[in-house]
């Protein structure tokens, strides 16, 4: 039986939350996960991702990798392994920059949806 999109989001977010909350940077990750949707809404998707990439701190990199991997799978049907979201950051951003407005809006919506799940799960882990 096929999983619904919400079930897929929940499974991915649960994995992200479980992995990240078992690290030495769990407090920072939790704070970032809680604030990420507001940052995207106020600054935009690409500026937020660029900000996380520029910080290069463990929690920022973890959340950036997770959001990038989710968007790659949902928007471009590319399955990336953990860590590949960071390695493909530049081409990913180029893809977003060159995307039509509908694709960019879809990516923004998807990022907000996956972050909604992650921010709920970081409290449960």
Task: Walk me through what this model shows.
- This protein is mainly alpha-helical and 125 residues long.
- It contains seven helices and no strands.
- The model has no long low-confidence stretch (mean pLDDT 97).
H/E topology pattern: HHHHHHH
Q: Looking at this structure, what is the CATH superfamily?
A: AF1862-like domain
CATH class label:
Mainly Alpha
Euclidean distance between termini CA atoms: 27 Å
Low-confidence stretches: none
- The oligomeric state is single chain
The major beta sheet can be summarized as:
none
Percent of residues in helices: over 70%
Count of DSSP strands? 0
If classified by CATH, what would the architecture be?
Answer: Orthogonal Bundle
Structural class: mainly alpha
Topology:
Elements: H1 5-20, H2 26-43, H3 45-55, H4 58-75, H5 84-87, H6 89-98, H7 101-124
Could you give a quick summary of the protein structure above?
With 125 residues, the protein is mainly alpha-helical. The protein has one domain: Orthogonal Bundle (Peroxidase, domain 1).
List keywords for this structure.
7 helices; mainly alpha; 125 residues
């Amino acid at each position: 039986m096929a999983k619904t999109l919400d079930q897929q989001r929940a499974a991915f977010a649960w994995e992200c939350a479980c992995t990240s909350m078992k690290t030495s940077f769990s407090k920072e990750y939790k704070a970032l996960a809680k604030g990420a949707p507001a940052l995207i809404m106020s600054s935009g998707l690409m500026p937020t991702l660029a900000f996380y990439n520029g910080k290069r701190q463990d929690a920022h990199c973890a959340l950036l990798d997770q959001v990038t991997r989710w968007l790659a799978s949902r928007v471009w049907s590319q399955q990336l392994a953990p860590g590949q979201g960071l390695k493909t950051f530049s081409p990913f951003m180029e893809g977003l920059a060159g995307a039509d407005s509908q694709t960019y809006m879809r990516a923004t919506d998807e990022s907000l949806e996956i972050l909604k799940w992650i921010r709920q799960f970081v409290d449960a882990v």
